[in-house]
Structure formats: C-alpha cells, structure tokens
Amino acid sequence: MKALVIGAGIGGLSAAVALQNAGIACQVFEAVKEIKPVGAAISIWPNGVKCMNHLGMGEMMETYGGPMRSMAYRDYRKGETLTQFSLAPLVERVGGRPCPVSRAELQREMLNHWGRDRVQFGKRVNEVEEHADSVTAWFSDGTCAHGDFLIAADGSHSALRPYVLGYTPERRYAGYVNWNGLVKIDEAIAPAEQWTTFVGEGKRVSLMPVSDGRFYFFFDVPLPAGLAEDRSTLRDDLTRYFSGWAPPVQRLIAALDPQTTNRIEIHDIEPFDTLVRGKVALLGDAGHSTTPDIGQGGCAAMEDAVVLGNLFREQSDIENVLRQYEALRCDRVRDLVLKARKRCDITHGKDMALTQAWYQELKEESGERIINGLCDTIQGGPLG
C-alpha cells in the first residue's frame, strides 16, 4: 500500500512517520523549494509530546523543549504579579511536561528523522483525481504521482481542501496581529523557566523558554487587518502600541531583532463537518485551521497522525479507515478550534467587560482553575 502525503510541515511529516510505522510506503511532496517555518516557536503540550513519543520522535521534545516549569500573569503597567504557580501539578496529572520548541529546530529534526532526501520539494499540487483503486496528484510542474490514498497536510491555505469539502471556505480574521521571535533569556524581563504573560488593554506580551537559553516571545495587539507595517517600522510600531507598559516589556522591545521578528495577522476557519472524501483526507491545519490561543495547532496535527497510523495498523480497508479517522477527529478538532476562538475573544478585548473580568479573575487565581482547563484539553487527545 502506498500513500501520497502533500505537505512536509509538522502535520505532513507526523503523518508520513505514522503511516510508515504502520507498514505503509509514503511519498512526501512539498510545494516550496525550501521550508521556512511560519512563526518562531510552537507550544507542544503533553498531548503532543505523547504523540511524538508514540511516533518514535520523543527525543526531539526532550532535547529541544524548553524548561517551562511555572506560569505567571503580570499587570501591564506596573509589572506586578497577578498570579504565579508551578506547572508540576499539571505534569503529574497528565504524565508529561509541556515543551515549547523552536519551529526551525523541530522542522529540521523531523525532516532529518524522515529523511530530507525523501521529500520531493518544489511540488505544488493543483489537482487530485480519484480512480477505482488509486489516487493521482497533479503538480504545477506538469508531473503527477500515483498512490492508494492521499493525505492533504498542505496547511491553512490548503489547495486540496476545496476538493474534499466541495467548497472553498473563507478564512476568518481573528481581530489581532501577532509579532513573534526569539531572544536570549534575560531575567530582568522574566524568569528563565517560566511562561510569563503581561496583560492589559486587550493586549498580551508573552515569553516562554525554549532550548539554548532563549525566550520565545510574542506580542498581540487587536488591530484592523491590512495595515501597512513591516520590519522597517516594527520596533516603532511596538513601542507605540505598548506605550506605558512595564519596564520588562520595554526591555524586550529594545532587545528583539526586527529582521528575525515575524508579524502575522491571525486567522482561523469555521470548523468543518467532514475531513474526508473517498480516498483523500485532510490533516493538520488543512483540516482545522485555528488561532494559536490555546497552543494546540501543532498538537492537533500530531494527534491526527497518531489516530491515522493506529487505524491502519488495525485494518487495510482504506475508505473504511478514513471514515473512522474522520469520525474520531471531527469533534475533537472542532472543540479545539472553538476553544481557541473563545480564548482569543476574551484575551483580546472583543468584549472589554469580559476581558476586564478575566483580568480580575487572574488576581484571585491559585492556578488550579487554569491547570484544570489545560488538563481537560490535553487529556482529550487520543493517548489520554
């Protein structure tokens, strides 16, 4: 049996490894000639870490996952702590630690694990055809590939999504812009082993430790889409948006490198009622494009891959397996997309009364409620 996997990002490579582990030959195709990760880092929560362990790639998490041992929210003006608590109870309850990791490192290590020379780059898919016992993918360079089934892991701008759904869904602007990058850890900004978030005015400034003594940072600002801002104005833009914020925030703005800081307008897509058509299945962002507000985008793609691989270990009827995959994943990924959207709206001041109430709740937060919410999300995954 042979699978065509479209996309060599986190989802596509996870799927290829899962299928290979199930005894299925895979060809992996990537549209770009060189993968440049979107975003500086990614949160891999314990459900994702368990998936990576299950797929035989857990060592990457241990090696490159930052030591995030506690969590804190701070007031935006004075920098005073609203709440601070250990993540040890989370680790104990779910059986693993969260691993914030550089996207470039994760992408590199996953490519190396699969075999970079086994990925066909510069292969942009533009059409798929199903036959009685096979699938053909056609690429923009005029070539094609044949397989028994196809996994479309070609990202949030998926070219194959309309084929599966029968329509082209609209991306929904979530209402805010995110700047993200990496800086050296500076404890005058935040503790080295803590996820620290400054909140106020419907905005966020957040720092997470990743490997090699670096913070992954991001700034969120509710803004109209399409503003003419770029790297040349980046530091001035952030200085303006975060005027009056606490000294650690100003120190972070001064420390970042505009040339390596990303600016992204955040979108999601309304959850789908289907992930499969015939012998073609959507996986990862192609099947569930979410905002990053609960840090589950990459984890959900890993979960997809694990479920798919496990089903193929049990049986070889392709269309039956893909129908089961859809049945097992649709509700789970819908829940994650909508949870992230709800968190996004509260965090970013869609209704400032609700956002202000959240700030007040943080002052009374022991950590138990937040950890309970994280555990609920994590333990909803296929590996518990």
TrEMBL record:
GO terms for molecular function: FAD binding; FAD-dependent urate hydroxylase activity; urate oxidase activity. Pathway: Purine metabolism; urate degradation. Signal peptide: none annotated. The keyword Coiled coil does not apply. Residues 2-337 form the FAD-binding domain. Its cofactor is FAD. Keywords: FAD, Flavoprotein, Monooxygenase, NAD, Oxidoreductase, Purine metabolism. It is an enzyme of class 1 (oxidoreductase). Its EC number is 1.14.13.113. It comes from the Bacteria. GO terms for biological process: purine nucleobase metabolic process; urate catabolic process. InterPro entries: FAD-bd, FAD-dep_Monooxygenase_BioMet, FAD/NAD-bd_sf, HpxO. It catalyses: urate + NADH + O2 + H(+) = 5-hydroxyisourate + NAD(+) + H2O. Belongs to the FAD-dependent urate hydroxylase family. This is FAD-dependent urate hydroxylase. It comes from Kosakonia oryziphila.
